[in-house]
Amino acid sequence: MAQCVQSVQEFVQDSFVPMVAVLCSEEAERVTRKNNLSFAELLRPFCRLTSEGHIRDPNNQVQVVKNLRICVNNVVTNLNSPSTFSPAQRRMLNEVVLSCQPQEGAATNVITAGDYDLNFSDHSLKASLPWYSAWRETLSEVSTSQHYTATTPWFEAYRENFLQSMPASEHEFLNHFLACLLVVSSTEAVPVEQFLKLSQEQHRVQHSGDYTNPKWFIPNTLKYYVLLHDMSEGDEQRADSVYEDMKQRYGHQGCYLLKMNSRTISAEEDEQIPDPWSQYLHRNNLQNQDVLEDGAAAVNSAAVENNMNAAEVDSPEKDGAPSGLESHPLQLDTASSPGSLPPLSAANTELKKAAPEGGAAGSHGTCLTLNDHGHIRQFIQEFTFRGLLPHIEKNIRQLNDQLVSRKGLSRSLFTATKKWFGGGKAPEKSISEPKSTCGLLYPPEAPELQIRKMADLCFLVQHYELAYSCYHTAKKDFLSDQAMLYAAGALEMAAVSAFLQAGAPRPYPAHYMDTAIQTYRDVCKNMVLAERCALLSAEILKSQVKYSEAATLLIKMTSEDSDLRSALLLEQAAHCFINMRNPMVRKFAFHMILAGHRFSKAGQRRHALRCYCQAMQVYKERGWSLAEDHINFTIGRQSFTLSQPENAVTAFRQILTNDSRQTATQQGAFLREYLYVYKSVIGEKEDSLPQLPLPCIHSSATRVYFGHERRLAEGEKQAATHVSLDQEYDQDQASMWGHLEEQLVASANRGVVPGNFQPSQCCLNSQTDNLRCPLAVAEEPIVVEVSFRNPLKVPLALSNLSLLWSFTAEGTSPSQENAEEAITNEETLTQGMKQKDDIVTTEIILEFHLGPEETKLARLRLLPHSIGQLNIVGVVYNLAAASSGETAPSTEGQQTLDLMVVRGRQDLKIQGPRLNQTKEDKMVIRHGLDRRLDPIITPPMPLMEVFFLQFPTALLCGEIRKAYVEFCNVSGVALSGLRVASTHPDFFTFGSQTTTPLTPVSPTSAENCSAYKTLATPRQPGSVATEVLVSAGDFSQPSGVMDIPIEGNTLQPGESTQLPLWLRGPDQEGVHEINFLFYYESTEKGNKISHRVLRHSVFICASRSLSVKASACRSSGPPHHSLEDQGSGGTLVFIDVENINTSEAGVREFHIIQVSSSSQHWRLHKCINPAKDKDCKLTSRERAKLCFRATPCKPQATSNAVQKYTFADLNLGNERIISSSTPCGDFFFRGCRSAEVQPVEAPTSRTTASSRSQVCVPTEDIGNIVKKCNELDLNIIVIWKAYVVEDNKQLILEGQLHVALQTIGKEATSLTPKEQETQEMVLLKFKSEAPPPVILPAAELSQLIKTNLHYPETYTHPFVQDSLCVVPVTLTLSNCSQARVEVIIDLRHKSASPESVEVHSSFTWVGQTQHHLQLRPQEVLCLTLRACFLQPGVYNLNTPRVFAKLTDQGAMCETSQQTASPALIIINSA
User: Which of 178, 260, 312, 857 could be stapled to 603 by a disulfide with Cβ–Cβ 3.0 to 4.6 Å?
Assistant: First the structure.
């Protein structure tokens, strides 16, 4: 805001000062011109009096005149009397504002704390108010900004020049000349004659009536005669004599001898004389231009600086016809014309500083000494005190006497003066015209003008009380006459006089000023006077801290006739808003915007830019996006016009990077302007690439892929999936692959994982561990996927898009690393030179289009050739606005498009993850490193590709399928140590080298061959199983890692090998994801990369085939009936096979072709099915039951610790499958190993249960004995074939299902996963279930003894002859345990169950009814009993009770024989 050094009172006082005219002879003018000054200019710095003056008022009271300033001007005659400024004066005011700019880089005078912090302190406002902190922050930003200054010197300069160049008016006398200085040189021949000529000239100008300007205050103008003596030329004695003569002629108070030019040329070099004239000279220029005609007025270089044409300066036409606002003042210039580049380019001119005005080049006052300065100052004081003030005092007395002598004759002073003076009003218009116009003119001698003249004289000599009285009384008369111009003038000066009165006896009448302004503006149409009134009133109101009223007043004064005035007043209004008690920051910003807009229209581009920059501080980051866009766009344009392209680029970048809410058309215009500005900036700087703001790059989404992209399938070959950028990253999957790789590395390092092991990462993203520099391989590409987002609603066209990198060769230590040794491709990309392909080959994407608001991924490739450290710095591209489809075919349009392409770069700066480990990390925000763009290039490594042939996508559960896998070494380095790990190791096998059948390697020759090794063996009824002994070590490997059997364990460069691969469908139906991880190493050791891995994932759809349930029970037949093995009892194995396949798979029927067993202890001996000749076929939902006898294995003679497995095959068809060879044996052992991984806790839980219930029996003994007694450990392999119809062709599928029989009497099934599912479902039940019944130790011990009754099924007895029938019955007792057992047999038992009563009538055992026996381990004892029957019938002989106990234990337990099936005998009568 305009804060003057002087007070408001001094400012208002200096606005109205006595005017003194100057008439010089030619010789006197020549003397002053030696100093590059006219006489009026010579006096100007000394026109303020340093001492007080005194006058006496009409009441003879002494009035002190303090700090008086007079204004000395040359007499400039003019024929017409303008009421407004001429175009030359307007241009001069424009120049004054333009030449006064805030200093760049200087310390700014910011608003003091009194204006801000005091009003926004915590004492006056509660800090909890929601807007408090936000606006306080904004206020502090605005007040401390480099753009915001508390003073506006350009406004002060404008105001001062405006007030001094006010055109003289008829209705007031303040700027009329009171006196005239007649200046003659002492070198004239007859100086007195020259004085006479000048006096006559002054009289002619004033009284001839030819000139309307200049205007004179009173008819009797004071003439003051000045004799100018040049000390360097003239004769000083002659000058003194002439001066004496003048004193005689004009009186000593009416003349003065001024001696000057005392300084010699030689003295110029010795002393430095100050130059006080430079700051005043433009005013002289201003005065001189008044006399020039408008067309010939010389415009200074300010117009050049602003590149203004005539229309941009406030033209005279604007005064008469203000143009209405056709568009909103804040509307962006480009909204109507999208291609608005020509005005920008036309304005791109080099700005020049305004040349100093007035006079020729060189310093001023060169011939004057400091004594001469004192002489001039003394002359002004003499003239004022001896000439001017007495003259004014005399005229005040005369006017007062004239007016007071007529006082009292009527009600007022003025009616009296009207009567005596004859009321000589001369209306300019006819009587019929309304009196409300300002066209009424008084003649010079009118009494109303006399009182006004007296008031003006009093005002000029600071007698404000008398002046106010005169103004106030004159005002009433002017209003009664409807002389509105005169009335407005009286109101204005009455208000000013009231304000300036010492002691402020009355308040400042602001309504007087408001009425005066309204009258000037609306009635008189005189904006110059209205503006003067507003300037004065605003300053007075501000001094009284009435900022709101001052702002309202200033805003009212804005109009379309003068952009410069409107801009300055709007800016002052904005400063008023921010200086209020409660600062109105948003109003400040809004009016600064309006001021900037008007400054721009007035051609004041620097001031416009400053206003917009100040307002931007309030609007930025507050959500006012459209306002921000407007401000930034204007700042960009103005900065570019003022040759500040960097600032323009910054402003335009803000528009384009924010989430803009502009329309697509507007954004397109923004983009074109931005590209044009950018093009000009880049044109100056060809050496480095600038940063581009478009498109936005989502740096953290950048992904880096190392290696060749996956080759697709060729023909029937299916390539390994590996890793690609098309796959989504999954944390669980990554940890699964890492676990597999850890297994492989441990297998390769004798079971130990190295301490520095890190899982291989081919693809890096924001979720991977990027703390270490990734390892890349020379001659293998690096693909960087960059995510581009176009924030605009218009398409963008990127071209020649490539990566920017720097490379440091290996062997350079970090301390020696400097800019010279780091090789970069920036120069080649900037200047279009040849690429540095010997180090890194950079791929270039020629075209890359981004649609409106589109996010698109670009994959950019590098191919490193050298070993060292590579740093991917950023991306380089050409940016252009994509055409909307309607491109003009003309070459001119094409050239414009070419001009709109700029080349630049964007850096890829990726912020690492937030650190959250230590307390310090949690207290502050710290981010770790992210090195994904800094790969270390290592020497070439082997590279393997894997292809699969005849690999299925769907299998039946348990189906065996043979496929082939091909390994190719596509690198220049040999590879070895080929291994594979999988999440499903039981899904596949490469076969074991000892048992692999000699199958053909080529897939085509093995199309219809079975995957099994088979022998043609016709089935014979009652045949016994074929047995093979196999060691488990031939099949299984210690871990889930498999070595891949390739010849020589090495694959040379370019070699490929093909291996068979057997697959087995998973036991559980559904879709299974099966992952393979292939591992291989280089034959050359010592590389940074120790190994490489290749991933492959397949999805197998498994559909249901057969359900196999098996159970075992002890044979109830007597042991001696077993012909095969006399020494031990047999076990019966029942196998239930059900076809649970759904018809979707197209399976017609299943054939059970073979049942095999594998165990270290038991074997299947023979099939004892009743239907021995039928083939076992199962169609949909059919079930078959097979029965086999199992016997213990023969004791092995080997002394090895490793027990061998016995494989027994029972084929049901015409061919025998050798189950002990690949693949059947492989999958059996793999199935066993996967089952062993899950811990079996059933036996231990049973043992603890028995120990809890039977305290007297030691846990260890019972557990061991029972376990050994019931242990079976028999694995059954059911091999089947399925007949499938596919595409009218019949295919034969084959497979195998495994059932593990662990315990006698407990059923086992092949569908184990389903059992697990049901168990999990049970756990989810909320209702508490009853605990399972505990098996009592009696039942446990009862299984130690097996009983069997042998008797004839029918017995015929002649009851007529003999009433008693005695039948011999043999009771066989078998000790199944390895311990001695005591047995008690009690024959006295009578069954109480109703079933037994129904079945038989009573019979009795005869002979010994109780037996006490001891059985050795595994002993079989036969006991002959006799049963006595009294009548024919059917009898159940199973009534003996058998009790058993261990010999060294005390508890006797009954056997479970009672629960067996009844032993029925039929007794017939003969």
Answer: 312
Q: Which two tokens stand for residue 1439?
A: 């009534």
- DSSP summary character for residue 297: P
Residue 120: predicted pLDDT: 24
Q: Write out pLDDT tens, residues 762-786.
A: 899 888 888 889 999 998 999 999 9
DSSP three-state, residue 451: helix
CA–CA separation, 190 and 185 (whole Å): 10
Helix axis angle for 585-601 and 625-641, nearest 10°, is 40
Asked if 770 and 932 count as a contact pair (C-beta separation under 8 A), the reply is yes
- C-beta of residue 1151 within 8 angstroms of C-beta of residue 1141: no
Coil, strand or helix: which one is 271? coil
Q: Classify residue 140 by burial, with Cβ atoms within 10 Å: 0-12, 13-18, 19+.
A: middle
Query: Are 448 and 440 contacting, i.e. CB atoms less than 8 angstroms apart?
Result: no
How far the first Cα of the chain sits from its last, in Å, is 145
- What's 99-148 look like in SS3? HCCCCCCCCCCCCCCCCCCCCCCCCCCCCCCCCHHHHHHHHHHHHHCCCC
Write the pLDDT tens digit of every residue in 90-139. Answer: 888 888 888 888 765 444 434 432 232 222 222 223 233 334 455 555 55
Q: Which two tokens mark 703?
A: 């992904």
Peptide bond into 754 cis (omega under 30): no
> What are the residue ranges of helices labelled H in 685-730?
none
Yes or no: say if 254 and 212 are a contact pair by the CB < 8 Å rule.
Answer: no
pLDDT of residue 116: 27
pLDDT of residue 1022: 61
| Closest listed residue to residue 953, CA positions, set 1106, 1059, 1061, 1063 | 1063
CA distance 748 to 413: 124
- Give the number of C-alpha atoms closer than 13 A to the C-alpha of residue 1404, restricted to the C-beta side: 7
Query: Which pTM does this prediction carry?
Result: 0.68
Dist. CA 613–CA 605, nearest whole Å: 12
Supply the mean pLDDT for the chain.
77
Rg of the chain over Cα atoms, rounded to whole angstroms, equals 59
Both tokens of residue 465?
């009380």
* Cβ atoms of residues 929 and 771 within 8 Å: yes
- Give the C-alpha separation, 352 to 301, whole Å: 8
Q: Which of 987, 997, 972, 1002 is nearest to 1042 (CA)?
A: 987
Cβ atoms of residues 670 and 652 within 8 Å: yes
- For 1187, 1286, 1374, the CA distances from 1348, given in Å and listed in that order, are 21, 54, 8
| Kind of pairing between the strands at 782-789 and 703-706 | antiparallel
Q: How far apart are CA 529 and CA 167, in angstroms?
A: 9
Give the span between the Cα atoms of 120 and 152, in whole angstroms.
Answer: 24
Of 378, 365, 479, nearest in space to 37 by CA: 365
Written as six digits, the tokens of 1300 are 């593990």
Task: Please give the Cα distance from 1344 to 611 (Å, whole number).
Answer: 107
- The helix (H) or strand (E) run that includes residue 1152 is strand 1147-1159
Question: For the residues of 1014-1053, what is the DSSP string, one character each?
Answer: EEE----TTPBPEEEEE-GGGT--SSS-EE---GGGEE-T
Greatest mean pLDDT among 254-268, 307-321, 663-677, 1122-1136 lies in 663-677
Distance CA 864, CA 454 (A): 97
Q: Are 1422 and 1348 in contact, with CB atoms under 8 Å apart?
A: no
User: For residue range 1111-1133, what is the model confidence (pLDDT) as tens digits?
Assistant: 888 776 655 444 444 334 578 88
Would you say residue 1334 has pLDDT above 90?
A: no
d(CA 863, CA 837): 9
Helical spans, DSSP H, in 662-767: 664-684, 731-748
